[in-house]
Structures are given as C-alpha cells and as structure tokens.
Write a structure and sequence with these properties.
The chain has one domain: CD59. 3% of the residues lie in helices and 48% in strands. The C terminus is likely disordered.
C-alpha cells in the first residue's frame, strides 16, 4: 500500500483539525492505481508558495509512472497540481520549467451534474451554470470546489 503525506489547509485553520499526517492510501480496486498529490498556490510576485491540499489520489493516467511530483501546467491562475506514484513522493514538489500557464479567462468550471470527490469519494452536486456558448476543452484538470473537494475532470 502506498503512503502519502497528507495536509489540509482548512483543517489547520481550526484548532481541533488534523492538518498534517502520513496516510496509507486505500486500495483503489482491481486494475486501478493510487497516487500521491499536492495542490498549491504560488505567488511569483510575492515569492510565496502555500500548500492547500496533499494526500492520496485515485487512478489517473497522467500520474502513472511519475516518480516525482512536478506540475506540468497551471490549473487555474496561480494554482498548481502534481501527482506521483512512489511512497511519500509528494513530500517535495515543483513546477516544470516548461509548464503551460493559463490566462484568467481560460479556466472554466466543470459541467453541472453529480460528481464524486477524487480524494474522499464524497458525493457532490454542482449547481452553478456555465454561460451558453462558452467553449470548453478536454484536459486533465482537477477542479477544487469551494469546500475543498477535488473533482477529477477529464472533459471541461
């Protein structure tokens, strides 16, 4: 079983929450893999890196055979995600010098519907609307909800 560093910024804000630990990932099921991940914000103008979430991530081809946690694209402006497949590989993380950066207008929320958090499997229903005529593109994009759940969106 794979072990990953766990961190939840929201839990650190409350006095009784667990914000840092080492977690053993749950079995992902037959033919599925587990990974470690990090989601963080990076303010290049202020030089501040702030981890938002770390933990176990479920079967995602973009994470296969990644021994180091290196972001290859900006997920939303100033926010990055990486995943990897070794024990505690999310202890260190970085941004590739060739990472694809987004403009603020290039990001869109996932479509309406019923989703499950990719980390805790919590059932979520999205209630916002996407403006008619907005083009969406397919991409590997973890979408972070306002309550900290992660949707592993394949097509946005």
């Amino acid at each position: 079983m794979q072990r990953c560093e766990y961190y939840n910024q929201r839990n650190c804000e409350s006095a009784d929450g667990e914000c840092y630990a080492i977690h053993t990932c749950q079995d992902a099921g037959l033919g599925r893999r587990t990974h470690c991940y990090v989601f963080w914000s990076n303010s290049s103008t202020q030089g501040i890196v702030r981890v938002i979430l770390k933990g176990c991530w479920l079967d995602t081809p973009a994470c296969y055979n990644q021994s180091a946690c290196i972001a290859t694209r900006e997920q939303t402006p100033g926010k990055y995600f990486c995943c990897c497949e070794r024990d505690l590989c999310n202890a260190n993380f970085s941004i590739s010098p060739h990472a694809v950066m987004l403009s603020a207008s290039a990001t869109h929320p996932p479509p309406l519907g019923n989703w499950r958090c990719a980390v805790c499997n919590h059932s979520l229903s999205l209630t916002f609307r996407v403006q008619a005529g907005v083009h969406m593109r397919c991409a590997f994009l973890p979408y972070i909800t306002t309550v900290g759940h992660i949707l592993d969106v394949s097509c946005i």
